[in-house]
Automatic annotation (TrEMBL):
Domain HTH tetR-type: start-end pairs: 13-73
Superkingdom as given in the UniProt entry: Bacteria
Cell membrane found in the keyword field: no
Signal peptide (residue range): none
Keyword DNA-binding applies: yes
DNA-binding region, residue range(s): 36-55
Protein name, as recorded: TetR/AcrR family transcriptional regulator C-terminal domain-containing protein
SUPFAM superfamilies per UniProt: Homeodomain-like (SSF46689), Tetracyclin repressor-like, C-terminal domain (SSF48498)
Amino acid sequence: MTKKQADAERGPRLDAGAVVRTALELLDENGLDALSTRAVADRLGVRMNTVLWHVKTKARLLELMADAVVGQAPLDRLPDAWDDRARELVRRYRHALLARRDGAALVTGTYPAEPHTLRFAEALVGALLDGGMTEREAAWTMWALVYFTLGLAQEEQSAAARPRDGSLARAVSADTHPALYRTLAHLGAESFDARFEFGLDAILARG
């Protein structure tokens, strides 16, 4: 590719934002495993090197995509009370993850110190500090909330593609796993909303 051609492809019609938006479209269509910089380039009608010129590496592209996903969690009109504010922020975070195919898996695999992610973290940590937590308690409670939400959202997003085959019920018996057997009906539950709210309450109660 000549410099003139490269400059043309890097012109106003294509920038990092356009690359990220296209990558998110492909994520929704085909899932995270099928996502590649080549697929993004093909969709945009440019060379793969042009895509990489804007986002440098696939890892960097994933970071920017993850930040865009988190950016879909609005930070306005939050409750005044610190605990209600923290709960609402995490609910919005979960909703943003679930709004994209494999959104939780995408965000889990990244650690972006990017604007949207930092603004969300600032709002959540601020709420926890307003509740009287120490700096360490606020930081670690934030991580507990984020990791719990990411894990449960990943399970929820994969559940639709994973048929319930009864393997857990067959593997657990009253003789060999008495404690698990007693709770078996709840271990296999797919009531994700209720499980999310339970975990949210449990984490904040300990905080």
